Amino acid sequence: MDMVNLTIDGVQVQAPAGSTVLEAARLAGIHIPTLCYLKDVNQIGACRMCVVDTGARALSAACVMPVSEGMKVRTNTAAVREARKVNLELILSAHDRKCLTCVRNKNCELQTLAENLGVRDIPFEGAVNSYEPDLSSPSIERDASKCIQCRRCVATCHNVQGVGVIGQVNRGFNTIIAPAFGKGIGEVACINCGQCVMACPVGALREKDSTKEVFDALNDPEKVVIVQPAPAVRVALGEEFGMPMGTRVTGKMAAALRRMGFDKVFDTNFGADLTIMEEGYELIHRIQEGGVLPMITSCSPGWIKFIEHNFPEFLPNLSSCKSPHQMLGAIIKSYYAKTAGIDPKKIFNVSVMPCIAKKFESKREEMEVNGVRDVDAVITTRELARMIKECGIDFVNLPDESFDDVLGDSTGAGAIFGATGGVMEAALRTVADVLEGKDLQDIDYTAVRGIEGVKEATVTIAGKEIKVAVAHGTGNARKLMERVKNGEADYTFIEVMGCPGGCVTGGGQPIVSAQKRMECDPRQVRAKAIYEEDKDMPIRKSHQNPSIQKLYKEYLGEPNSHLAHELLHTHYTDRSSVR
Description:
Layout: E1 3-8, E2 11-16, H1 21-27, E3 51-52, E4 60-61, E5 72-73, H2 78-93, H3 109-116, E6 140-142, H4 152-160, E7 167-169, E8 176-178, H5 195-199, E9 205-207, H6 211-218, E10 224-229, H7 250-260, E11 264-265, H8 268-289, E12 295-296, H9 301-310, H10 324-340, E13 347-353, H11 357-362, E14 368-369, E15 372-373, E16 377-380, H12 381-390, H13 412-415, H14 422-436, E17 454-461, E18 464-472, H15 474-485, E19 493-497, H16 514-519, H17 522-535, H18 546-556, H19 562-568
Parallel strand pairs: 1-5, 10-11, 10-13, 12-19, 13-16, 18-19
Antiparallel strand pairs: 1-2, 3-4, 6-9, 7-8, 14-15, 17-18
Helix pairs in contact: 8-10, 8-14
């Protein structure tokens, strides 16, 4: 690799040719503030917070300025500091500064910059645009009054997710980031993935808040309130309480939920094991009986809505399985309600999800059985953290507690659903055992792990080669599906997760600042914790879960039975008319 020699604040630095001054400074441990910059997503030099002195007539934006041999950069001159401060004051002058009541208070990049740059007053007074929040989506709220025009959300929606439903609308001072033609975010082909929320440095985009609905249910003596947290929540929730990224807080999370007043604390990992039973046997049936292939996983609601809008011809390829939390919701209101002697209509099911698309999914008309909704409310990891804090619970010092039997029992296969490739690997563990007719010991399918956008592998099971593919992020999924559509790829099984990195970096997870993302990759750190959770489980295959076996023996009969289809399977909708 060709290297370039330069000097930054008197420090001799070597940086790869083609890198930017911002990247070179980071290598030297020199901090340059940013706002519109988002690593590998948005490098446009628009906010001018990263300006530096390179000896040119004007200050240069470090995020787009390439390094050159012998370059001398100064990042901390009086002129540089003043330029950054004035730029920030101008941004703040048109910003809705209701910080204390903003969901991003204390986790806002604009707020942090104001503190670090010593902004104590706004000398620029003038008109401030005010907009009504867009509440049209069941998952996302958009408040243009807080928007700073950084365009990080636009770049994420267009370039990463390949959805492209938001952009700059109007001109000059009246410019806003919104869908075209005055439509709300819920009226366009938004897939509710929430990656725009994760990209937003302020509070202009947020999840639809469901905490009041859950608190109301907890305070209703007529309701039996049951909760289930997803696999990825337990490796991220701790970050909201100052714990290091990737800390596993499974036991503390169960304890906190119990102290909040939930009547039962079950585990979505049980639903993940159940999904593998249904989806695994569905795949076996399709392979043996000449069914529609490739079969595509259906656990990610953002991906499901994406394919409904963009590739409706592949709807028959989707597994008919509901996602794990919807499956568990249906089992709670049928099997559990029956065994516990509870009227299903009195049960209020709450899912804690890393994904805000689950809010949309839970409201789909398909997600009910005999007029009873599978899941009544979905809260994100962030919302759970806010509720724990509101309850005054000392989360960090909680003792570890377990989930409730039987629907709180799970395996390592259920745990890895949180990482990209996890559903595929969990399914292969069960499918291989069933087709081989024995308990295989080599169960780590590492070829489908990692953060490469599209991963391919060929596994041999019972003498038969099975070609599989894994994609994460709908931008990568689009490329994969185009290849399948054009006959350029031939697979038996495909896993797609709507969010880059899978559920561990879903739209409802703790928001990581752009500066922090330059230091570490949440996809890798949280996924590592997911696989550690798997390794520590005494049982690592879904079909070996005794509670799953009990459920089939006492209630469902066998995988893909008539009752299983009634409760655990669904269908999807062609939405191609909305693009």
